[in-house]
Design brief:
Elements (H helix, E strand, L loop, with lengths): L1 H16 L4 H15 L4 H35 L2 H13 L4 H13 L4 H19 L3 H18 L4 H9 L4 H24 L26 H8 L1 H11 L8 H10 L2 H17 L6 H35 L1 H10 L5 H16 L2 H18 L4 H11 L9 H10 L3 H30 L1
Helix pairs in contact: 1-2, 2-3, 2-14, 3-6, 3-13, 3-14, 4-6, 4-10, 5-6, 5-7, 6-7, 7-9, 7-20, 8-17, 8-18, 9-18, 9-20, 10-13, 11-13, 14-19, 15-16, 15-17, 16-17, 16-18, 16-20, 17-18, 18-20
Length: 436
Amino acid sequence: MLVIFICIVLLILLVSWAKVNPFLAFLLVSIAAGLMLGIPVTKVTASVQKGIGDILGGLVIIICLGAMLGKLVAASGAAQQIAGVLVKLVGEKYIQWALVAAGFIIGIPLFYGIGFVLMVPLIFSVVYKYKLPAVFIGLPMIASLSVTHGFLPPHPSPSALVVLFHANMATTFVYGLSIAIPAIILAGPVFARFLKRIPSEPLATFRAEEMPADKLPGAFNSFFTALLPVILLMLTAFFPYFGIKNENALKVMAFLGDPSIVMLIALLVATYTLGVKQGMSMSTISTHFTDAVKDIALILLIIAGSGAFKEVLVASGVDKEIANSLRSFNMPPLVLGWLIAAIIRISLGSATVAGLTAAGIVSGLVVSEHVDPNLMVLSIGAGSLAFSHVNDSGFWLFKEYFNLSMKDTFKSWSMMESLVSLIGLVGVLIINVFIK
């Protein structure tokens, strides 16, 4: 724990005080952590490389294609059209709530990273068009994405926990939904009221010049193209319930449902509907795509660095040591599950790793203490969202996309995640009182 604390403090100082590039800071701290935690010298670099490869392998295609799609949505005027339609429907006064609802609906079928990349252009289009504070408008929508990621199946961690604890998927979803809604409201729009003065100049790649109304793509075209990845993922998610047993059809849908393939299809469609169809030349479209990748290159490197740090900690076995030392604490099993997940999350940065590691430690308590397995899934899920900071890729996504200082990222993103986690635990304990 002391080594982890030293490394996290060192990382914060390197980035915020010494102004070292975050990717380089992550590499230095990851190597130092590996050596101090006893990983053989010959295996430290292998752990760093594995961590970078593991996290980028699942994200680089999605983030790059998502940035290209976002750039095209902004440059074509589609984002401007979407923002205009939303404001007409709910009024500028309630635009924040409209974005929260959209984020929650989209967040159920989508992984957090994909949802973030898809929704950021929409957030920024509203911010720029109506000159609203970026964090005040954007954080509530991001909160809704984060809550669905931690609490609700079919996301990876809650789905895996349901299986591990032999819980009921539908019951867990219903309980999770009843906790998720107040968590989103309190940690989103309510908390965001205190963040109106945080200065933020969001990432320029999603900023487009105001276009005259007659040059904008149609409303249907704008919404359909921007939300096509969501539509495709929802179709593939519900496909198993259509009763189709053909093995070849199932294989095709599994292929088409892969997030990378979904993003590629969406980008190809957008290239035509928002590019060629709107009169853009392919060279102009290609220039937009190149600019988009340039703008998110540093974000990819920072996320890669956070993956390296996480892998070094996992390879050293420190996550299991932390969990085992906490198991001897005398406290209610639901609180213990939350605490173990929270400490591993704070130490390693990964919500999924925190959730699955904590589950392995407390699985025996669920049976011996007669704990409701559905609530244990949610308790650990809430703990796995606690206090996201510099070792979490989500922290850097939010900081870099919204172009915030470290201090303001802690005040907004880290506090929001901590509120979601605490509200989740309180919700679990309240439900436990009523179902006993």
